[in-house]
Design a protein that fits this description.
Distance between the termini: 19 Å
Structural class: alpha+beta
Radius of gyration: 18 Å
Largest sheet: 4 strands, antiparallel
Strand content: 15-25%
Length: 251
């Protein structure tokens, strides 16, 4: 059984967790009570069992687990499903990960607006590497205090363009709002609101399945997430996690 994270780390790209060389362990730093702590996800014996070290797992993967058996039972009845995608689900255990802070959720969502997933990963990587911190090869997302020191010009230098002012404005509001109040920030529309709900609830059943990634999943995987969501948003969310992971493999 292959073990993967979604989003999946790539060489040179700073995603939420970085794989420790020669070990099936993914780690990162996070801010907890003004101190930087390491949290790791470790697969046990190449199976679907894993352990999370150093943090409450609900902050990382959410309260509802993705159930691969339920997904398989459903997909085996879908005539249009791609054989390659079905094989991926049968042989892969995907663990979704989420931003741990509201600051990270907001920045990540704004960066993802309009541009492709691959480009968003690159820009998010540049953001963390430039403004966050690094220790023992692991990256940590910047603290709110560090974020407040970033200028609009700093943001433009890493390719954020018109989003620089949006992010700067949002950073100034982050101390005063709760996660569910992001809609008060300029530039948070229907899609962004849905994606922030995913991050806030740590549950992909809130995902906007009608977006471009949903269309690509329908084309490449043979599953219509919009239709599935009409029956069960939980099932649609869990299938999205696997399909998005499958797409990250270049399918």
């Amino acid at each position: 059984m292959e073990f993967k994270l979604y989003p999946h780390p790539e060489d040179g790209i700073c995603t939420p967790f970085i794989k420790v060389p020669e070990r099936n362990v993914y780690s990162r730093y996070f801010n907890h009570n003004s101190s930087k702590r390491v949290v790791s996800i470790m697969n046990k014996k190449e199976s679907s069992f894993f352990s999370i070290i150093g943090c409450d797992e609900k902050k990382i993967i959410g309260e509802r687990r993705v159930d691969r058996k339920v997904i398989l039972d459903y997909l085996l009845q879908v005539q249009s499903v791609s054989c390659e995608f079905l094989d991926y689900v049968m042989n892969t255990y995907v663990l979704p990960t989420f931003p741990i802070s509201k600051e990270e959720a907001f920045i990540k969502t704004v960066i993802r607006q309009v541009i492709s997933a691959r480009q968003a990963k690159r820009v998010f990587s540049e953001f963390v590497k430039k403004f966050g911190y690094k220790k023992n090869g692991l990256y940590g997302f910047p603290t709110l205090e560090q974020l407040e020191k970033i200028t609009i010009n700093d943001l433009r230098k890493i390719g954020l363009g018109f989003k620089a002012e949006r992010i700067s404005s949002g950073i100034n509001m982050l101390k005063r709002i709760r996660t569910g109040e992001f809609v008060q920030i300029d530039g948070i529309g229907r899609w962004s609101k849905a994606v922030l709900a995913v991050e806030a609830h740590k549950d992909y059943s809130f995902y906007p399945f009608w977006d471009k990634s949903g269309e690509k999943i329908k084309t490449n995987c043979g599953v219509d997430l919009v239709k599935i969501a009409q029956e069960s948003e939980d099932l649609a969310g869990d299938i999205y996690v696997y399909a998005a992971s499958y797409m990250e493999c270049g399918k």
